[in-house]
Amino acid sequence: MVPALALGAERPERGSMTQPPRKKSQQLLDLPLMLRAYCFLGLLEGLAGMTGFFLVWLSKGYGLMELQAIAPSILSHSATATMTIYHQATTMTLAVIVACQDGNFFACRSERFSIFRLGFFTNRFIWLGIAVEWVLILSIIYSPILQKIFSTAPLQLIQWLALLICPPFILLADELRKIVVMNQKMVVFKNQIYH
Fold first, then answer.
1. Beta carbons within 10 angstroms of residue 156's beta carbon
2. Is the sign of the CA dihedral 121, 122, 128, 130 positive or negative?
């Protein structure tokens, strides 16, 4: 949430004053925004989180069939040997979601413009928010008291390295979406001019 607050300090987009005003009837949280947030970016983050969860289990020798077989004992908390893996898998899921949100913050800086056009360092508050976010997640993962409260477990180096994929994955997916949307708008605009 801290980096999301930094989006409030974002500079106005170039050319925003040349855009026609928003209709009074248009909601701030309209359907395209909700679809982007939940059906596109949210879906990608959910898939990434579940991938992280299952990759932890796979790295410990548990495939989907083995995981299904031990699921009742995990849910009843009677599987002491596998609870450590379960805690690590859920911790990985949380860390993946946080890492994906880092890409999401940069993607959400503009609905129209690429982050490569805006620049990564033009809103330094986002970096401050990301630093605070990672201090919090590291505390949740490595502080013994918070480990007990949140049922987390330390991650391995390879798992931390895998998290580096998440921000560019989300950011580049949204960059491609922006290109497609802008191209569609150009086609509609050209059709209106010629007709």
1. 13
2. negative
The conformational region for residue 29 under phi > 0 = left, psi -120 to 50 = alpha, else beta, is: beta
Which residues in 7-85 belong to E strands, given as ranges?
A: none
How crowded is residue 42: how many other Cβ atoms within 10 Å of its Cβ?
A: 15
CATH topology of domain 32-194: Calcium-transporting ATPase, transmembrane domain (1.20.1110)
Could you read off the pLDDT of 95-150 as tens digits, one per residue? 999 999 999 888 888 777 788 887 888 878 888 889 999 999 999 999 999 999 99
Give the C-alpha distances (Å, rounded to integers) separating 118 from 143, 161, 195: 37, 27, 34
3-state percent breakdown (helix, strand, coil) of the chain, nearest 5: 75, 0, 25
Whole-prediction pTM value? 0.82
